[in-house]
């Protein structure tokens, strides 16, 4: 792939299609005037194939336009560019997928400008950064070039919360107004510094997901088969997790897109493990999927050591914690964000 475009600029024309493709790790780009596609085995369904065929000319035109825009501010991905409210600039989790905010942006409404931030390395052309401070400064420069004066609301999801907090500090030091930093399901860096804690967190998330899924199955036989399939996959997933944390070399793959994403993920985890949060005096709102998340391995209370004034907001108890920003939970998370925004305006 020679990087003509990788779904990396104004997505307003095709938000749902591009978001669906990104969630499945399906990449599309233009090469020599032709639309190219790369996807994991089984991800490119007939429905996706039909959409790509039917809208090929539109997508090619859009991606060519996106390439030019990306050369100006490659980190700024406008999910919603309209509206009069203070714009949100959001840092994704460690896989760097800006489209993880698509559902949340949609449910925040047409009056809420929302920009996802794309890290270096996600485009497959640039190299990823492995220090939170460097990533945050890169985002800060991109934001100021795109929107020279504030105010800005800074957001971060999962492991991106650390970068969001650092980004808010930098913008504040530069004299910009940051009325709120919103952390969605934040992972404290301590989660990645201690293997036992991360394994506990992994096990808890897997168990919660298993219980939700198995409850939906209609018969005992179906539940037994599902249990067997999950058990077979568990050992492999644990080995992959431990390997990712311990080995220094990057995973080997022949797919250039997957190889670049593997480097990005490895660099992001390295950055988080190195990062030591420092005190921040600005307003911080921590949005958790549910109250039980307070007791999770994500260690959300540890943020109080550097932001003791942080406000906590909770989604419904049945919220899918690992996918809290996606359907069907995005409306509930959007609602608690609106509650926090109302408190800011009062």
Structural notes for this entry:
With 346 residues, this protein is α/β, with parallel strands linked by helices. It has two domains: 1-72, no CATH class; 74-346, Alpha/Beta hydrolase fold, catalytic domain (Rossmann fold, 3-Layer(aba) Sandwich), CATH 3.40.50. Helix content is 46%, strand content 12%. The chain has helices at 15-23, 46-54, 56-72, 102-108, 132-146, 160-173, 190-193, 195-215, 220-246, 256-274, 330-345; strands spanning 27-31, 34-38, 76-80, 88-91, 114-117, 153-157, 180-184, 284-288, 311-314. The strands form two sheets. A seven-stranded mixed beta sheet has the order 3-5-4-6-7-8-9, sandwiched between helices.
Helix proportion range: 40-55%
How are the strands of the biggest sheet laid out side by side? Answer: 3-5-4-6-7-8-9
Instruction: State Rg.
Output: 20 Å
* Number of helical elements: 11
Topology pattern, helix = H, strand = E: HEEHHEEHEHEHEHHHHEEH
The CATH homologous superfamily of the largest domain corresponds to: Alpha/Beta hydrolase fold, catalytic domain
The number of domains: 2
What CATH calls the topology of the largest domain is Rossmann fold
- How far apart the termini lie comes to 51 Å
- Main beta sheet strand tally, sense and closure: 7 strands, mixed
pLDDT averaged over residues: 78
| CATH uppermost class of the largest domain | Alpha Beta
Strand elements, count: 9
Low-confidence stretches: 1-13, 247-252
* Level-2 CATH architecture of the largest domain: 3-Layer(aba) Sandwich
Structural class: alpha/beta
Task: Note the beta-strand portion.
Answer: 5-15%
Please tell me what the overall shape is: globular
């Amino acid at each position: 792939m020679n990087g003509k475009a990788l779904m990396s600029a104004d997505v307003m024309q095709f938000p749902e299609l591009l978001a669906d493709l990104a969630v499945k790790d399906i990449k599309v780009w233009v090469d020599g005037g032709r639309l190219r596609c790369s996807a994991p085995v089984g991800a490119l369904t007939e429905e996706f194939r039909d959409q790509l065929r039917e809208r090929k000319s539109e997508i090619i035109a859009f991606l060519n336009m996106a390439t030019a825009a990306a050369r100006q501010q490659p980190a700024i991905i406008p999910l919603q560019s309209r509206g009069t409210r203070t714009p949100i600039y959001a840092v994704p989790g460690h896989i760097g997928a800006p489209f993880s905010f698509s559902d949340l942006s949609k449910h925040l409404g047409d009056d809420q400008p929302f920009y996802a931030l794309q890290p270096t390395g996600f485009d497959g052309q640039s190299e990823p950064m492995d220090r939170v401070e460097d990533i945050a400064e890169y985002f800060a420069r991109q934001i100021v070039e795109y929107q020279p004066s504030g105010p800005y609301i800074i957001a971060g999801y999962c492991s991106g919360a650390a970068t969001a907090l650092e980004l808010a500090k930098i913008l504040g030091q530069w004299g910009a107004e940051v009325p709120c930093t919103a952390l969605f399901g934040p992972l404290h860096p301590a989660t990645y510094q201690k293997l036992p804690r991360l394994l506990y967190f992994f096990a808890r998330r897997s168990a919660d997901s298993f219980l939700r899924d198995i409850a939906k199955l209609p018969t005992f036989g179906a539940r037994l088969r599902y249990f067997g399939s999950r058990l077979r996959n568990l050992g492999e997933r644990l080995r992959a997790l431990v390997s990712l944390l311990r080995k220094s070399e990057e995973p080997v793959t022949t797919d250039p897109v997957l190889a670049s994403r593997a480097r990005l993920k490895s660099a992001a985890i390295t950055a988080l493990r190195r990062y030591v949060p420092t005190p921040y005096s600005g307003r911080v709102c921590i949005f958790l999927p549910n109250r039980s998340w307070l007791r999770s391995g994500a260690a959300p209370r540890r943020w109080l050591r550097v932001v003791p004034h942080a406000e906590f907001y909770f989604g419904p108890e049945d919220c899918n914690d690992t996918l809290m920003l996606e359907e069907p939970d995005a409306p509930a998370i959007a609602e608690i964000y609106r509650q926090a925004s109302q408190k800011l305006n009062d």
